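Q: What does the assembly look like in three dimensions?
Context provided by user:
Components: four
Sequences:
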Amino acid sequence: MNVLESGVSELFVKPDIWNFRDWVHKNKHQAMTEKLMTEQEAVAKFVADGDSLGTELYGTVRAPMSLTREIIRQGKKHLKVAGQGITEIDFLLAADLVDTLDITYVAWEVYGISNILRRAVESGRVKTADWSNGAMAWRFKAAAMGVPFIPVLSMLGTDTFRYSAAKIVECPFTGQKVCLLPALFLDVGLIHVHRADKYGNCQIEGISGFAHELARASKKLIVSAEEIIDTEEIRKYPEHTIIPYYLVDAVVHAPFGSHPGEMCYRYWRDEEHLKNFLEDSKDPAKTKAYLDKYIYGVKNHEEYIKLIGMDRLKKLQAMIGGR
Amino acid sequence: MNVLESGVSELFVKPDIWNFRDWVHKNKHQAMTEKLMTEQEAVAKFVADGDSLGTELYGTVRAPMSLTREIIRQGKKHLKVAGQGITEIDFLLAADLVDTLDITYVAWEVYGISNILRRAVESGRVKTADWSNGAMAWRFKAAAMGVPFIPVLSMLGTDTFRYSAAKIVECPFTGQKVCLLPALFLDVGLIHVHRADKYGNCQIEGISGFAHELARASKKLIVSAEEIIDTEEIRKYPEHTIIPYYLVDAVVHAPFGSHPGEMCYRYWRDEEHLKNFLEDSKDPAKTKAYLDKYIYGVKNHEEYIKLIGMDRLKKLQAMIGGR
Amino acid sequence: MMAEYNETELLICIAARQMADNTTAFIGTGIPMLAAALAKKMHAPNLVPVFEFGGIGASLEKLPLGVGDSRTFHKAVAATGICDMMETAARGFIEYGFLGGAQIDMYGNLNTTIIGEKYWPPKVRLPGSGGANEVGSFCWKTIVIMRQHDKKRFVKKLDFLTTPGYLTGPGAREKAGLPPNTGPYRVVSNLGLMGFEEKTKRMILLATNPGITVQQVLDNTDFAMLVADKVVENEPPSEEELRILRTEVDPDRLYI
Amino acid sequence: MMAEYNETELLICIAARQMADNTTAFIGTGIPMLAAALAKKMHAPNLVPVFEFGGIGASLEKLPLGVGDSRTFHKAVAATGICDMMETAARGFIEYGFLGGAQIDMYGNLNTTIIGEKYWPPKVRLPGSGGANEVGSFCWKTIVIMRQHDKKRFVKKLDFLTTPGYLTGPGAREKAGLPPNTGPYRVVSNLGLMGFEEKTKRMILLATNPGITVQQVLDNTDFAMLVADKVVENEPPSEEELRILRTEVDPDRLYI
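A: Here is the predicted structure of the complete assembly.
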């Protein structure tokens, strides 16, 4: 294939579909098996040093925060992170567990840029390749399709393309320029959902972000759920299953698993907590103190919930909008 | 782009995304406007001779049969049909309205091959290009993504590829052979759904086939619905909207719109009617008689329903499984 | 006393026995549906049927009439769409794929598109690939059902190669760009059960059906069929298999 | 008597006025959300807000805090995902796109990635493209909000071209492979309102904000800004606009 232009950044994860297929065939259960376990068990079993890792959805929104905290607690390091997010990426960077970042956006939206990202990248500790938000989602989509790349018409003409690892070719049907994005197959994906059964069949309410794509792009998939439901419930509305069991390796029951982020129809985001962390994040020592208190200082998600306090969490529940 | 091999069939519809974008921008409403109309109005307004046309789902399953019958009644001809189906394709072919067929599968599943297809294609009246079922769905997916092609790893090594209009190239990331499918942008798409509001926001129960993709691949989209619901219902469960209003040009209220096919959770397929048609289809005169009776002989879907009879339809309702 | 059975019942039973428990299987219309339902009720209760229009893990309490009908996702664990199913197979999640064909060659390649020498207009137009091309490309093991074993169907050269078997032999799938370690696994016909020889990827007779000789199979095959060192005879349907098939799987006798 | 207002309120009002009724708009965090909500309550009741993580046509009764939060799809007509949204824009269904940036050049190209000369390690690491690259590539008309109009932000040369404006001038977008007839439409800053000259695709001053002179705008712009033949003065926020903004759009004063 005649390549007109290539992005100059390193391709941190090679788009090897044959390797993915073989891994799946050797390691995943085709039948429905029970996968309920704790965060500790799931992370110990399915996250390894050096893994490529992706989280969904987005820092303050339906994010797998209890899983992220457990990864930090267990000190899984040299991670290759697919960086779309806020809190979860900030945490991983602050704990110094990240080697490379396929970054599209790490910041606090209206509250501004991430101080932790700045320190991690400007110091040269973390290597980056840049992509657009669409590009990252499409890279997962390519992996979900089981193909090595996917064509898109964005990224073109920009430094975002130039400092990615994408390629531009000429379309053999129309002659137009097309940007090819390499599929992003992850070693581990983390997704927080509203409901799952013990086999890993999952339902999500509201927007689905890139859950469909990331779930299918992951060799190992750890799901945390606000609620564990009976499989009969799943079978009653099969069209609501966004993640079928065979994609899933571990199901973790994690009420308030997205805290300090929100979970639509369940609880609103903890604005005060987030603002305090954002303030702390300006200073490395205070950032460390935050991690010490909220992550290293608690044994597990249950203790974290106790530390935050049910009164506070009930208030967040009361603040969330209905349908 | 260095093409290793090209399918030899004609590309009946060019994958022109710029043309699609311009058409959409000039002709579609961005705001929510009321689109309720009859089959007659919808087909008269939005189907033209020579159009490329696709139907979803599949002959005997949630198929837009009332719309298909109306197209035949109005004699829209020289159609370029995306051929995945049974009854609806047989009807269009029998009425001699089809010039070209991007075919993946036209047959009666366990009841065997289509006699009407045989007559239409073996006589040389209808030109064909062959594709796999996945390939056709992916061609719609490419169009839905707004790109001119999509890579897949099927079709390779076969005559199905050779007599398609696809191309094989070398992946610039991995060096492996990849089949590129041209996007299939349709002039008109027809989809039958369970529920729609007057603006065209649609919900589908059960499997969604390729509704997501075909809806997004169509310049003009006509939706028929078993039930017209209030927009408040749509807004209550926005995650159940598979087709948002802006894709839709016409909403037709068509109870039993999939007859003689089934509609999951609503009514079972009319086995006797289908078997009789299948028997009739063996003979051109009898096929014509069928069309005369059930299509040309009735003015509209309402009359068709009367002809079939509510007693019969109620029996089909009683035969369908629950959840 | 041996139970009486017809040829369809025999095919269903032999096909059902090929599927291991705790696996996923891409199911087509007809015999594969019955075979999957029977297997689930016999030796493979945890078999997960997958249908190309989106049904995953249906109960198969009632027999579907088509690969998209509501019975393919009745009490299923998921009901998605065709792209998701094909892509699930593409990513290596589906063990078995069931296929049928008008013609098969010695490498397990299949024709379901046309009969005759010319593509268009063809002498006989068949249905086309449907999902077969993806099933034959992506599933780890494909099982082919051929109801009629004769020289017109087990041919030296296909009129049209719709769905890939081993193409032209060892290494050909990989060379064409198809996934490694995939391909035809079994062929179930009214005369016997065939597999594919490891080295040559050629079709090899493993077992004959009750009352059928090896010679009869060879006489009804246009290409040079390999023959296993020890060809066994397939067990006829057991009474248990027949009872389940007739009273639970297809009580309305839609297929059998 | 003229109502008092702050700079943020002015920016919101001017941004809101740029959106026509009966259109779709791709909405980012902050000012675009307030502008869209205000426009809906003023002149554009049928404006449809679209958010990148899947919210389509939300009521915007309560102000979202992020582009994925539950308010972006509260009472929405659809709640899908990021791919669907980006692809909807790719197919030409989205009229307006709202963007912001750390730097903008005379062709409306934007930088939100790094400050400094070296990509890695950079002097200052900014958030990255996020959805901006797709918004700037696919929406028909992009509207850029620049809260601070000065020479460090309205620059001759970007440190990094994150999101495409007109790139290097007329025809450059098309040459790069981007959709025809798209690109930057308006730039709303604290000093004035800019557009892009038809022929040269260069930024052109259309209107100054109340109390701001043309010369002030030019003095605070590093590149040679074109100036319209007749530069008008933007109307200050009306009492009606301010009332709605303060009591209905952002009663908790999260942003204003």
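Follow-up: Residues 7-17 of chain D form the longest helix (11 residues).
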